[in-house]
Design brief:
- By secondary structure, the protein is α+β, with helices and mostly antiparallel strands.
- It has one domain.
- It has 2 helices and 6 strands.
- Strand 1 and strand 2 form a beta hairpin.
- The protein starts with a helix and ends in a 6-residue tail after the last strand.
Length: about 90
C-alpha cells in the first residue's frame, strides 16, 4: 500500500478543488476512490476535510496512521478482533 502516492493524489485533488477547478461532488468522489485495503483486510481512506487517514474497524472510522497498521487491531474472517502477536 503506497500511502505517499495516495497522499500526493489527495493533495493534488484538494488544490484543484480549492482553486475552483473541480466541484465539491467531484472532489468527494475522487477522494472516496483513494480508499485502499491493507494486508489485514482493513479499509483505509483519507478524510475529505481533514486530510487525515482513517481505517474502518467494522463499526466506525478510526483516525490512525496506515504506516502503523501492524500495531492496530484487526478483525478476522470470523469477526473476531485480534492484535498482531496475540494468541488464539
Amino acid at each position: 500500500m503506497d500511502t505517499k502516492l495516495i497522499e500526493k493524489e489527495y493533495t493534488d485533488l484538494k488544490e484543484a478543488f480549492e482553486a475552483g477547478e473541480i466541484e465539491a461532488e467531484a472532489f468527494q468522489a475522487a477522494v472516496d476512490d483513494l480508499r485502499i485495503q491493507d494486508d489485514y483486510g482493513r479499509y483505509w481512506t483519507i478524510g475529505v476535510e481533514s486530510g487525515q487517514w482513517y481505517y474502518f474497524d467494522g463499526v466506525s472510522w478510526i483516525q490512525a496512521d496506515p504506516r502503523e497498521a501492524d500495531s492496530l487491531p484487526f478483525v478476522d474472517e470470523n469477526g473476531v478482533y485480534w492484535m498482531l502477536g496475540q494468541e488464539s
